Amino acid sequence: MSRSAHPAGPRYADVLPEGHYTPPPADLNALDARVWSRTVARDAEGVVTVGGIGVKQLAEEFGTPAYFLDEDDFRARCRAWRDAFGADADVFYAGKAFLSRAVVRWLHEEGLNLDVCSGGELATALAAGMPAERIALHGNNKSAEEITRAVEAGVGRIVLDSFQEIVRVAHIAERLGKRQRVQIRVTVGVEAHTHEFIATAHEDQKFGLPLAGGQAAEAVRRALKLDALELIGIHSHIGSQIFDTSGFEVAAHRVVKLLAEVRDEHGVELPEIDLGGGLGIAYTSDDDPREPREIAVALRDIVTRECAAAGLAVPRISVEPGRAIVGPTAFTLYEVGTIKELPGLRTYVSVDGGMSDNIRTALYDAEYSVALVSRTSTAEPMLSRVVGKHCESGDIVVRDAFLPADVAPGDLLAVPATGAYCRSMASNYNHALRPPVVAVRDGEARVIVRRETEEDLLRLDVG
Ligand SMILES: *Cc1c(COP(=O)(O)O)cnc(C)c1O
Questions:
Q1: Is residue 105 part of a domain?
Q2: Least confident range of 136-140, 191-195, 213-217
Q3: Strands, sheet with 53-54, edge to edge from the N-terminal-most edge strand
Q4: Domain of 166: which CATH number?
Q5: Which of 101, 253, 359, 402 sits in a 20 to 30 Å window from 119, CA-based?
Q6: Pairwise CA distance, residues 69 & 76, whole Å
Q7: Ligand 1, closest atom to CA 241?
Q8: Mind listing the pLDDT tens digit for each residue in 81-99?
Q9: One domain, residues 372 and 388
Q10: Of all protein residues, whose CA lies closest to atom 10 belonging to ligand 1?
């Protein structure tokens, strides 16, 4: 990417630290298809539309801030993942990215399975009719109650994450007179190329049992001894927002090595391998994610090659994309409230939401794009920082963005690619009311998660 001086003046380059200066796009009104969901476009008046409905109409009807989810795009992504991996593999959508009953129904209809990692997510999945055998339960500290509900419901797998849990799940299954299908989550010592706090496969972390040093092999040994457990495979999740498959290559190599050791020691070939999620999406035009088909071919090739080398039959593969399915399908719509120009620095544009509806910028230094969506503009690009309304100077939505210099209170801004880890991580900080999620499809918009009200807040506050 070129990082040259901006034609509108070198002052833009001066503000940003070295290496962080990206010149503004040639046309601020253009919508990069990479970061916007499939049905997003501008109409003849220059208003951005999704599913055929303009954002001004959406803002009037549903208020701001709000998340608008492009249902066609969501379903198309589900099908792309399912078709890419085919009938001899399983795609589990990671519910923690964003879960609601409508989403569960879409997943069910499009033939995907579902990962949950809490009692609340399990309840949502079951309430919306996801067949239990298509649900996997994750987590490094599942409560006895969560395990009990999962075993009772008959979930397809529980991913075991500690020595205590092996025994705990076995006891509960035994008590309920069931044999529970389980996988063991291992850490393979791979650090995915991404921000430290969202990389999870290096060994110094809370998830999984390390392959190195033999803890993973010991977990297999213990699980195989327990009649109430049916050990179906090994699970590895190496990180988040990953753009190349080399990390998966190392992970598959090491997991297959464990499968071979298990065969040698116990005479058992475990039939499944789960390679986790973590596939990246485009938050800005600089990101270039791979298509599901490319990823599927690469992962299958890796596993096939490793198994051939180890003399093992190729196990059934599963993957767990969360962000890669829901992330690109939604944008957050905000209204501009105040604008503060700091001469020689930049312009702060305040919107009516912030870190309560998108914590990722503050938490991970995540990068986002932003566009003026209620109209077009021919004004020159202005280096801006889009900030929220919370009492925290780190309350930043988009750290460095170019907006047209005539942006004004009342304008609508949209931040694309907020479908994953925004509503699901939303908070009530400053007693903010968490925004609604509105699904849009074929000229129709419907609320799938309603906006919180002050009554909702006061209901929990029992005085
Ligand atoms: C978070 C998580 C995922 C999904 O990660 P994405 O980055 O959203 O694809 C998949 N599997 C496990 C075990 C996870 O913890």
A1: no
A2: 191-195
A3: 41-42, 48-50, 53-54
A4: 3.20.20.10
A5: 359
A6: 13
A7: 7
A8: 999 999 999 999 999 999 9
A9: yes
A10: 277
